Structures are given as structure tokens and as C-alpha cells.
Amino acid sequence: MLLSATPPPGPRPAQEARLYEEAARHRGLTPPRTHPLASITWLGPAASNPALAYRVGGDPAHLAESRRWIEAAVRLPHWGKAHMPDRDLDAGWLLHHLSLAYRWIGDDLPDGVRALLRYKLLLQGRRMYEYAVASEGGWWSSSYWQNHNWICYAGLATAGYVLGKEEWTERAKDNLGTVLDVMPEDGSHAEGVVYWRYGVPFLAIHLDLLQEAEGIDWWGRGGFLSRTFDYRLHQMAPGFAFNVDHGDCHDRRSGHSAGLYYRLAAQYGIPEAQWLGDLSSGELLWQEAAESGVRPGILPEAYLEYLWYDPSVAGARPTATRAFFPDLGLLAARTGWDDDATLVSFKASPGGGHRAWETSAKHRAERGWETLDQGHHHPDSGSFVLVSQGAFLAVDEGYSNRKRAAHHNLLLVDGQGYADEDRYHVYKDIPYERQARQRDVLVSPDSGWAHATAEIAAMYDPALRVRRLDRTLVFTPSGRLVLLDLAEADAEREWTFLLQTDRPTEPRPDGGRLIRSGAASALVRQFAPSDTTVVSEATEVEANPTSSTPELRITRTLHTLRATTARSAHGLFLTAIVPDVDPDTEPTAVKRVVCAQGEGVAFGEETVLLSPVARRIRTGAVSADAAAVLLGGDGSAPYVVAATRLERDGRALLDVAEPYTGKVG
């Protein structure tokens, strides 16, 4: 498709209109005569989109426009200025786009321009190739789970196929094979949604090139590409415009890649991806383009949308409301997809995810290579994001350079977050054993319940002697949250519960707190402990999201609610969050359930009973040996987690030898 500029057969009027519009978008700009201080990645698509438009429609104005930007790019002595000139993202982007332009319109360029472009591509490709060889086992050359690796090698491969440089394409192909083999099979991505949309399209680009140039079909290799749309889908806020911002996310608007959606839809027959491609290249396009903090952004993908759109794939609006991605320990659950629906996203895993953590440890031991560069992964295991009524209520920090657990919805021990944090690469050089994980996961599409317990004690300084720090999160069918945090240490500690919001929470006469965000709201009720010291304070987070533009700074103010216990060797927080409450009236009935053993919260018709460690639940009506018993209204069957026995109102409903998770009856 890409090399021959040949899309799947059939009409594509919307994609053609997008291509022509993008081909003309820069006509009022003057190309730079010297290298700007900022990134020049945008110069590549400024040339390739009009080149394809000329190839499609034959308008000489598009040829002239492409030539303008080609000449600007080739006269720059280096591609990239502030950070790793000729050896990183700027060079990778331009190699890809200008090589395609050379392939598509090279015969129509004046001889001198064509010769200069070819010379420049050979020069830049050689620089990139030599750096990749020299730095093997170090930076992006062997950072298999990282967007720099995917982009730079895809750029080198494009140039290699266009110019006939087999040593470039072979090296890039070897790397691609390794990437596909070691990426998580569940399709999740530890760098977060923004870097998913920035980097994963280049994996698809490389696969497209490989298939067309060499007849090698690796689209099924490893499983990541075939499942990654599900990861992206379930990290969308209700209404589809915004994204959950786990990991480094410049903003909540930089998550869509219409071109990639179309390619995944065509390759794997995913109707939801086709539908979302239409939405993100249509209704959502210009707002994302205007508000996105990632450059060059979504608009330059017009060439991919045109070439990757397959009109034979029927689109369908998403309906699935629950998902769990075991490699990243990521649980996502929602009440629906409409703008006012409620979503929670809850995660816990080792740095980079389980597979990257395990595989990179082998690379380190067997080869002496550092292959896990996870600067975009945060100290956020056990944290969650809550979206409801079209607004973010419990929020993440987004992008940061000095990453801290205190910037997330987490817990502190004696005021401390994770060991070795407060730096960019929070997982670099830490012990292999320092891993978080999820257990006791329930994802129930039919009932709406979701449950998981994050084990995060290993992430804290060993000097604190934390034996246990487990967070259990339950999402009810109506979108309410229950959090149970259980902590143990070998000495008395102060335990601090953190909740991050975009606006300060407001105290209520009943002892609860109110979260507001625009017209949206949620009630926070902390039932235990009863003697915490509660403060609300502003937390400033600053970051430079791109080394290619050192002077760029983004800042964000979080409003942090802190609830701190008296010193104790044991800590317990039982918290309920009820979205969509009327701030001026009494909230929906929410109360603590009296339990002889275990902990419980009732929301009228929904009841959550928890005992994630002892696994013994005793109330007036329920007796269970289980981590959780989840009760809905209208006489619906209960759900259990890790249960061997359940009695309700004296009637035995479950009695099994092995722990069972799911519906009872």
C-alpha cells in the first residue's frame, strides 16, 4: 500500500477530501531556511501529503507544494538540532516521509531536486544506520518497547526499501521481529495512550512496508497488533473524545490515530476500529488538532487514512464495557459509552508491564544490554482514574519529568512514595523483585461488576519494612466505587491516602467531601479510619515533554486531598466514591455495612462485602469464605471473588474446594 500508493479498492471520498485539504494546509507558510530550535518532524508530512495528493489527483499545485518542503528539508545540514541530531525522532520522521515522497513523485521532480533528495536520504539513512549499530544494547537501537525504536527503524526501513539499501532493511526487519515477539500479547502499552498513538502507527507502517516489499506477512506475529485496538478503546473516556492519561500524557486530547484505526480494522476485521476511524477523522478531528499538545499531531496522518481505509469493512459503535489487560495489570470498566457515563481505569504491574520486565531482565543478565527504557511509565501501580458526566473527577498527573507516587491516587508511608522515585526513569536499576501486580480480578460484562486487588508493598523503601499494602477496587454496575486499602508494617507508620482532582474537594457537613468538575460531581465518603488528619493542598507538576524542544514547559496543578492516620503498624482505609450526586441535597444513601468479619459498603440496592486477605466475610445475612461478595438489587444472583463457600440468609449457594470467581447461581 505505502510504497505503491495503492489503497484497497473502493470509493473513499471523505479520505480523499482529507488528503487534499491536508496537502494544501501549509501553503501560507514559508519553509524555514535554517533549522528551527524546535522539532522538525512536521516537515516530513508537509512534503508527503501533497506528494500523494499529486499522485492521486494530478494537480500540479500539489507537486509544487511538495517540492517546496522537500527543498527546505534537504538543505538543512542536520535533521534535529537540540537533541541527537540525525540519530533520533526528527531524522526518523523525515526519512520515512521524504522517502515516500521520493518514491511517489521522484520522476516528476526536476533532475537537480531529485538528485539532491536522493543524496540527502542516503546521507541521513547512513547516519541513522551507523548510530543504530554503534549503540546496540543501549538507547533506542535496542529499546524494544519504546516509540523511538519503532519510529527510527521504520524511517530507516522506508529509506532502505526506496533506495535499495538491503543492510538497512535487514537490520530494521530483525529489530521489528524482536519487537513483535516481546511486546505484550494483550495489546497493552506501558508508555500510555499518547505514546501509543505516536509510536504504534510506525509499527503498522513497517509491517506494511515489509509485506509489500518482501511479501512477508508478520501481522499475526506475537499477538500485540491484533489486540492493541482493545487496549486503546478501553482507555477512551465516555464520549470518545478524551483519553485516560496513565503514563506520560501531554494532555487528554492526544489519543486518536484515524489512520491506525483504519489499518487495524482492515487487517483484523474490527468493526469498532472502522467506526472510530470515521469518528476521529470526522467529528473529532479539528478539536483534537486544536487542543493536542503532541506535534505534528493527527492532521498529517491524512496520507495513512487515504491509503489504509478499506471501504469494505463495516463499522460498528463499541458496546463492550469491561476489559482487563493482564500484562499491564490494567482494569477498565464503565457504565456505557455516552458522554455522561462513568469510567474507572485501575492499574498495577512491574515497570513496563510483566513481559517487558521479565524479558529485559534476561537481556541484562545474558547480554549486558539495557533494553527497557520506560521513561514514560509512572510510579502509579495501585492508582486509578475516574471519569463521569463528561468530566475527569479522580485524575492522573499527565506528563512529568520528576515522577512521584504523591502525584497519583495512591498511598504514602511516613510521607514517602515509591523507593527511588522523583526522577524520570523511576524503574531504572531497581531490584528485579520490586514489582507490583493485580490479583483476584473479576470482569463481568453481563452484570457490570468489576473487582481487582493491587499488591504494591514491594514498591516502597525496604527501610520502611512494609509487609503489605493491598488496594482492592470495586466498580458497581451503576458506576460507584469502593476502595479498601490494607496496610501492615514491622513498625508504626503514618499511612496517607491521596486523592487527586482538578479542583479542590469541598468538605460536607456529613464528613464527606465533594468533587466538582464543571457540572459533574461525586461524593467521597471515607468510613475508616475515623481519626485521620485531612488536608487539601495544591500540587504543581512541571515537565518538558520533548528533548527536541528544551525550552518547552507544560505545567499542571493538581488538588490533592490527603487523609493521614495516627502512627500504627496497621492501616485500613475504606472509601466510597459516588458519582453524579446533587451537591445541594443529601446524597444517594451510602453506608458502611456492619460486619463481624470483613468490610462492607451498601449503596441502596448494591452491596459490596470485602475480605481480600483473611477471606472471611460475616454479616447478618451473608457468611462467606471469599475475597469479595457482590450483591445487586432485584434479587439478582450474587457474584463472588476467590470464594469457596457462600451462604445467604442461611441458604448454601456455593461450596467448592478450589476458589471460584464469578456468578453464583
Would you kindly provide a brief summary of this structure?
This protein has helices at residues 13-23, 43-57, 60-74, 89-105, 111-134, 147-163, 166-182, 193-214, 224-234, 258-268, 271-280, 285-291, 302-308, 354-367, and strands at residues 322-325, 330-334, 343-347, 384-388, 391-394, 411-413, 437-443, 450-455, 466-475, 481-493, 495-501, 506-507, 513-517, 520-528, 533-543, 554-564, 568-579, 591-593, 599-603, 606-610, 617-618, 622-625, 628-631, 639-648, 651-663.
Question: Would you give an account of this structure?
Answer:
With 665 residues, the chain is an alpha+beta fold. The protein is built from 14 helices and 25 strands. The chain has an 8-stranded antiparallel sheet, with no helix packed on it. A hairpin with a 4-residue loop joins strand 1 (322-325) and strand 2. Helix 6 runs parallel beside helix 8 (193-214). The longest helix has 24 residues, at 111-134.
